[in-house]
């Protein structure tokens, strides 16, 4: 498959950025996959300005550094004037004081550092040839500046840190309701990466804000983070998620359908939540998610001698043993979604690609060479599921069968 020149150029740039991210990975707070990916080929994309939420201050709904939270909105028109798409921004997490102190000096912890404009691409695009089902909806991107997937409610006065993700979520929703979302006919809550996890965590809570006559559904992109063993036999991601939940005081805001039977850290993992979500939900995920490969399965702490380094940067360098390990990870993912997939109201698009976040990027969401399963691309699959034109339960065969992937290949 011949890839667009813009995509190939992006791979080079992204590789350089990603290597810098991996080199400082133990901080766990600079996951730029969703951010960089969403800016692919944006030369002629719609640019949408940042709006802060002044009313958030009185509610204590502030970023890590105490600054106001913000969002970007492009209003709908025509047939989409009363429909709303809310996208929760992703971008990693912080799990201890050191990483959160660093994070508050970036756009992931302070609106003082946020871009004043963001390009709306992929599922946020305003062009019917790029986003056929949602282009004329009210489309909103809620910025992510709390470091715990919009769940925390605590603070550390000594470090001057505010862990107020839950309040930011609530202030954002209240703002959008005041702008007309309370009268919506159709609503889709979406998010990528840490935002995809937030979508799962808040899905039923979001549904409860609307009357039964409103069609409300949720789309989680690259949010299916798994509680599995890493290459050294440890539980790297579980330890990390435990730090997030405890530091941010997130436990009280996690779905009670889970916390009534499991510990809070377990309830930060989607695999323990998705079977009990009552709201129709669509899982868009790669079976070989590169963030999980880099950060959860084979982080430097679990691979001190660098045996996995080249495999993480380019799948073609993976040994037969490493491929078998990754196939085992895929099998665990498929097992985790088994009960979820049995519900008629839910949707799935699990492709066997080495990627991360496919709804924000135009080349993967809807384009000439976009990934597809069963002769259907991602945008059409999500649209068919949302509007109930057809059921979508698409699971790819194992690597290397899929030739439509836009795999991420990083520079050495």
Offer a few descriptive terms.
412 residues; alpha/beta; disordered N terminus; two-stranded antiparallel ribbon; EC 3.1.1.-; PAE/NOTUM
Can you give a write-up of this model?
It is a single chain. This protein is of the alpha/beta class. It is built from 13 helices and 14 strands. It has helices at residues 5-23, 33-37, 97-103, 165-178, 194-207, 236-248, 256-259, 290-297, 309-313, 320-336, 338-341, 362-365, 378-386; strands spanning 46-52, 70-74, 83-88, 117-120, 138-142, 154-156, 161-163, 186-192, 215-221, 281-286, 347-351, 372-373, 376-377, 393-395. Strands 4-1-2-5-3-8-9-10-11-14 form a 10-stranded mixed beta sheet, sandwiched between helices. The protein has a two-stranded antiparallel ribbon with strand order 6-7. Strands 12-13 form a two-stranded antiparallel sheet. Residues 1-42 have low confidence and may be disordered.
